[in-house]
Design goal:
single chain; alpha+beta; Transferase(Phosphotransferase), domain 1; PH-domain like; 3 domains; 5-stranded antiparallel sheet; 13 helices; about 20% helix; about 25% strand
Length: about 575
């Protein structure tokens, strides 16, 4: 059974000082593990069942060395405290924590209804009644969160979960911003981070975030407007071919209201998507909007929600074959039998115990020798990939992979080109799903292989998790690293790339397109992603002939005319 906060019987009175969610002496052996629910840069969320009670949880597993390496110690501390403090039917509940020598664990409420994103995907778009009900529960939860002195900062359909009954739960507080100190008598988190720090997701981020201005609770209201639009239209209001172009649409408020959308919904969305944060209505004002006419707020969480569209996926949800070596990477070597017997052997799929000779199994026969990039070229000659390539661009490798996002795991084709970039292609529609330009600076790109199938591609701003279905993880790493070496050997003349810059007028930590020119001044041109201004910046060059990170930005050389080469690069 899935555990719901309303079913625990636990007193709502918090003890003076201390954690509501206890720090238990659990180990991995206390649980059965099911499918992966989500993946992050330093954590995994796995469905888990307590053996002695049968209660289900979403177990968040955070590897300690990754937390330290990714500099997330303060974020983990903050999320633990926030989840322990918040108590509302629309907030995912934290029930317990524990740790071992390798990992930290959070036992979170299991939301078996899935994500809002999945409901939109299955239905195309939601009915007005569905959108109104879900928006009302999101709004009521945000009203509570804001009153508690928090900005969520990452409201999006993937972070809106459902209970099995169909009520909303807002998840993922790792990006939340505290407007005042939080304490429970044991630990205290201070609001010392700049509220203008960039967090969030491109399609839902407020324009003030992109302009490096202080952010308030109105940023969540902008995101609510985007989510409401997506529920009624089936797609977000701001969507483009790249993150950069999406940012441009956001800052220009470039979106179209569909004709089929009810006027009352258009009016509310128009108010929420106001470029001026101070002019956006807050939660309490939005509750009075005619769009929510008929909503009985005092009875909202006890009323009957709209029926959920169920998943078409089949199979035993406690089958560890769905999890594979993801758990093994976190030392989760628990046997999955209901009898509770344990084992120290690695997690395996049913095939491993079926009596089939592993040396003659189909998977073994097709397993490549690690570090053989040629295996990635088997399907490169197919003409179906040419539509995704630019003039003169060559395909280095391609394969069928599973792409892990925060709460989903889907099959796609993964392409590697000499631009260099990774291209994600929808397996059913054979259409462009997403593309990732790879940094040309070797220090800004890292490929980590977990096993023969699973690998991650890390850059300063993002991390992507893949599982190659032909077990070519080592081949992907070797191919990408080889491409890095070849790219580094290119002449500096007229070479364009993406680098990280800091300082005005650039938004700190964002990418800017630059065109390197060989001359004595070591001066390069750049375009700020935050305001499109053309600036002169300085870049250090070493005797090895390679470009190196920009060390300063000269704001006195801001010009109005953009370099044509940079404009061309920006539109690619």
């Amino acid at each position: 059974m899935a555990l719901d906060a309303s079913q625990t019987g636990e007193s709502k009175e918090r003890k003076a000082g201390g954690f509501r969610a206890p720090q238990e002496n659990f180990t991995q052996n206390h649980f059965l593990f099911g499918k992966i629910l989500g993946l992050g840069s330093y954590s995994k969320v796995v469905k888990a069942k307590k053996k002695d009670t049968g209660e289900e949880y979403a177990l968040k597993i955070m590897e300690k060395r990754h937390i330290v390496r990714e500099k997330k110690v303060q974020y983990v501390k903050m999320e633990r405290l926030i989840l322990d403090q918040l108590e509302h039917p629309g907030v995912t509940r934290l029930y317990f924590t524990f740790q071992d020598s390798l990992c930290l664990y959070m036992g979170l409420e299991c939301c078996n209804g899935g994500e809002l994103f999945d409901q939109i995907s299955r239905k195309g778009r939601l009915s007005l009644e569905e959108a109104r009900f879900y928006a009302a529960e999101i709004l009521d939860t945000l009203d509570y969160i804001h009153d508690e002195g928090l900005i969520h900062r990452d409201i999006k359909p993937e972070n809106i979960l459902f209970t099995s009954e169909g009520h909303v739960k807002i998840a993922d507080y790792g990006s939340a911003k505290m407007l005042r100190p939080f304490t429970n008598g044991i630990i205290t988190c201070d609001p010392n981070e700049k509220s203008s720090t960039f967090v969030g997701t491109a399609e839902y981020v407020a324009p003030e975030v992109l302009n490096s201005k202080p952010v308030s609770t109105s940023a969540d209201m902008w995101a609510l407007g985007c989510v409401l639009y997506q529920m009624l239209e089936g797609r977000p209001p701001f969507k483009a071919a790249s993150e950069y172009l999406t940012f441009q649409k956001v800052m220009a408020r470039d979106f179209v209201m569909p004709q089929h959308m009810p006027e009352v919904a258009k009016h509310l969305i128009d108010n929420l998507l106001n470029l001026v944060p101070e002019k956006r209505p807050d939660c309490k004002a939005v509750k009075e909007h005619p769009f929510f006419s008929g909503i009985k707020w005092e009875e909202l969480w006890t009323s009957q929600p709209p029926p959920l569209s169920s998943s078409t996926e089949t199979g035993d949800e406690w089958d560890l074959a769905q999890v594979g070596n993801s758990l093994e990477a976190f030392n989760l070597h628990e046997s999955n039998s209901e009898s509770g017997s344990s084992s120290t052997s690695p997690v395996s799929s049913p095939k491993a115990n079926s009596g089939e000779d592993s040396s003659t199994s189909p998977s073994a026969r097709r397993s490549p020798t690690p570090g053989t990039p040629s295996n990635l070229t088997d399907d490169c000659k197919s003409e179906q990939w040419q539509r995704f390539l630019g003039p003169g661009e060559k395909l280095i490798g391609c394969s069928l992979v599973k792409l892990y996002s925060r709460m989903t795991m889907k099959k796609h084709y993964l392409l590697l080109t000499d631009k260099p970039r990774l291209i994600i292609v929808d397996i059913k529609k054979l259409s462009l799903k997403q593309e990732f330009p790879l940094p040309k600076n070797p220090q800004e790109l890292y490929v980590e292989v977990e096993d023969q199938s699973r690998f991650s591609v890390r850059t300063p701003n993002e991390i992507w998790h893949f599982e190659d279905l032909k077990r070519l993880a080592h081949s992907w790493r070797e191919a990408i690293e080889k491409l890095q070496v070849e790219t580094a050997k290119e002449p500096l003349d007229n070479r364009s790339s993406e680098v990280l810059v800091s300082g005005a007028p650039f938004q700190e930590g964002r990418a800017a397109t630059v065109s390197l020119k060989e001359d004595d001044s070591d001066e390069v041109s750049a375009v700020s992603t935050s305001n499109n201004e053309h600036c002169s910046v300085q870049v250090g060059r070493k005797p090895d002939g390679k470009s190196h990170p920009i060390s300063s930005v000269d704001t006195d050389h801001v010009t109005e005319k953009l370099d044509s080469a940079i404009q061309q690069e920006r539109t690619c």
